[in-house]
Amino acid sequence: MEYDPIKRRLGTVFNRTPFLRKLFYSLLDLLLLRAWHVGKELKRLKRIVSSSNIRILDAGSGFGQYTYRLSQIFSDSIIKGVDVKEEQIEDCNRFFTLIGRHEKVVFEYADLTTFNEPYSYDLILSVDVMEHIEEDEQVFSNFHKSLRNNGMLLISTPSDQGGSDTHEHEHDSVNGFIEEHVRDGYGIRDITEKLHRAGFSEVEARYSYGTFGSLSWRLSMKYPILMLGKSKVFYIVLPFYYLITFPFCAIFNAIDLYFRHKTGTGLIVKAYKK
What we know:
Elements: H1 4-14, H2 18-31, H3 33-48, E1 55-59, H4 65-73, E2 78-83, H5 86-98, E3 105-109, E4 121-127, H6 136-146, E5 147-158, H7 188-197, E6 202-208, H8 211-230, H9 234-258, E7 266-273
Parallel strand pairs: 1-2, 1-4, 2-3, 4-5
Antiparallel strand pairs: 5-7, 6-7
């Protein structure tokens, strides 16, 4: 199932005012387990960086959720979001202008397979992007070239343990729940070796979306999206659904966040350029 159309419909509703868009970002931060993991890593990085004035690239910025989060945590930094969808670039530039952050935050069109801005960034963030790109090693090489020395690349991506839900073949789809992915996901060894070949000197990778995290994802994302894909009536039902399920999802997310997992359907990867 493709859920981009559903995201666009939700975006149309929440994009009517800056307040609603901020609310949408906050709801996603609460619901999405990957946002919990990325937020934890960003706050940890904030505590150890020597300067709050760093240059950041959000590689595959989408509708700007993580760029907004970056601009809150690293408020003195210069941030660029890049994406291949020009309508999202225009939309994000408009929103960040309305909230007065356009002097430090800018969005531009870019294809990550050809993107190359040597020694420009201290941090590159890539959330749920690499599973969509066939030429991943070229992108990793571009990231390495674009980082300054002592810079870090932070990646959130599905693992090969069912991260794209391709192992279930539900609802008569041979591609599983998410059809836009070009690979099922990464193994820790696989992505580590690719990042080393791209030039990164140190790589740390860990599983996310363990048993409880995967259950949270089903309750908070998979089942609601499947329902919305069936009928628009479920847009009315959805708030009541979340009133019941969110407390459980929050508990499951917290368990996933604070415990290590032997396996999981997601990966959090940090790669360093020395």
